[in-house]
Input
Amino acid sequence: MALEPVKQVTGTGVFIPGADIDTDRIIPARFMKCVTFDGLGEFAFHDVRFDSETGEKTQHPLNDERFKDASILIAGVNFGCGSSREHAPQSLRKYGFNAVIAESFAEIFYGNSTTLAMPCVMATAADIAALRTAVEAKPDTRITIDLEKMTVRTCCDLEFPVKMPESAREALVSGRWDPIQELIDNDAAINERAKALHYV
Amino acid sequence: MGKSLFQKVWDSHRVGTLGDGRTQLFIGTHLIHEVTSPQAFGMLRDLGLKVKFPQRTFATIDHIVPTINQDQPADPLAAEMIDAIRKNCDDFGVTYFDLKSGKQGIVHVVGPEQGITQPGTTIACGDSHTATHGAFGAIAFGIGTSQVRDVLATQTIALEEMKVRRIEVNGGLRPGVYAKDVILHIIRLLGANGGIGYAYEYAGDVFDRMSMEERMTVCNMSIEGGARCGYVNPDAKTIAYLQGRPYVDNTNFDATAARWLSFASDADAVFDDIVKINAADIEPTVTWGISPDAGISITETIPDPLKAKTPEEKASIEEALAYMKLPGGTPIQGVKIDVAFIGSCTNGRISDFREVAKYIQGHKVAAGVQAIAVPGSQIVAIQCEQEGIPQIFRDAGFEWRAAGCSMCLAMNPDKLIGDQLCASSSNRNFKGRQGSPTGRTILMSPVMVAAAAIKGHITDARELFDLSDSAAVA
Ligand code: SF4
Output
């Protein structure tokens, strides 16, 4: 199972305001009544994109025509907190996002996203504010996340460092973001470990 | 240098180091439910893989099960999910606790009940409240669906090692202060993201004195504090709880118990961080906002945005108050409620219902409040029946339901309507969590929920009930 290395992600961005954006917000539980992940894209951020009474579109940035092609999500602290549902990153992926830049991420969301080849990089509050300003002034600003240099740069002079755990970076740039094959290849070691455990 | 329980379990389950530097960790016990597993079985079929250790995975259904008539799925989608887990378990040889088994329930209630949850093991489940099982001295954490696939196929996952923070709570808890208040207080102090990268070790007199069920309540909400797992070291209570349970090796029990106890953190274990909390400082705690760290004691006022220290804090208080439709700077007591919910994997165990039953006799749920009580498992429901608890709840005006997650996340028909406000014993107060996009949640202990139901508004249970002999560890 050879996987495509993810060394760079380029696209336009959209800023979603708020701290602690949880997975219930990203994909409300009622849309998890499904046995496949197909079709989750249209429900991403559903309850903040549509008015619950009228069903009409709200002022949410994802409803803003200027950001309709955005493929990089920009957010604040503790993005993706809450449940372990992979439905959350899956819905973002299917919506068309290829990466997330935020101040910090919840751990399970982070791991799930890496396995889906959607890098999540962390930047300072000031750098995120500057990127937000740039994107909102000029929505077609091209943003490149460079996982080899660990920077984010835009077409238009903005450049700042970003962070991510080295294991996630390594997994992405070396095309090992989905570990299943490597896990399977270690079958002999798994059996040995199982034998050594008192309860297996 | 001694080792913590975390390190002992981690080291004994480490298969090796992967190319990206992560650990390949053996998962001793794998729990699955209907929401996060069907896609994983789908991936397995696509890749032509088998389940490597079918006897190490256990399944049940909880999230979408209706609680009025369990056998009647609400809609075709729910029915399809139930069919899928039945078929998947059948095809791959996985033990499944179905509705008819008498053992069905919330996966985090069923595991301990069956003795599947054991000390010194690693436990994973496609559900973030897997941390609950840490109450037994296991390293237990939630995983995504791709990792459910990995566990099914290899019984291992790729994981980065966590740091360990020891949270010591010493001294005596005051009457009317419960395990739920302890964890809400911890989350309030350390923040909803304070635990990112950490496993929490809960230690000190308060946890030593807690029952296993109280320890489960605390460990359950580790994730609301950002920690992927939380645990209490195994002791005599852990052993006593597990002895005789169906999935425990009861023939060699003494040897098993000795092995379990050996996993407890050494006296000279080194931790990455230590936090000390004085038990007497903890009050009955409730949330007022849209994140579990938005907690205040029942005697406090709702935060005032005008008193915020930073513009960010001001904006976040304003966002929460606008959603909650609550005025800043006023007492939380007196806030009117529409719904009261007692249940969930945090507080849906036998001790929770027993405790509430002690105080609600002779009281009535206020007019206009819908109060529902939902046992965490069929076994809890049967135990309650045997003790006459459902009748006590019904007499007080509660609806007594069948086992499931119910209004904790409202994937079944139990949902808030419009902007109803719910006093809830569950674990999350996120926007829209209880089924209505504008529904509002205030988290608290089950006894505080009962008090709110009776008064019709948020109130101090210590004043309504005589809590001087409350079951919380004194
Ligand atoms: S009771 Fe609530 S938190 Fe617990 S497993 Fe069910 S939905 Fe999740």
Observations:
- Chain B touches chain A through 79 residues (CB under 8 Å).
- Chain B has a mean pLDDT of 96.
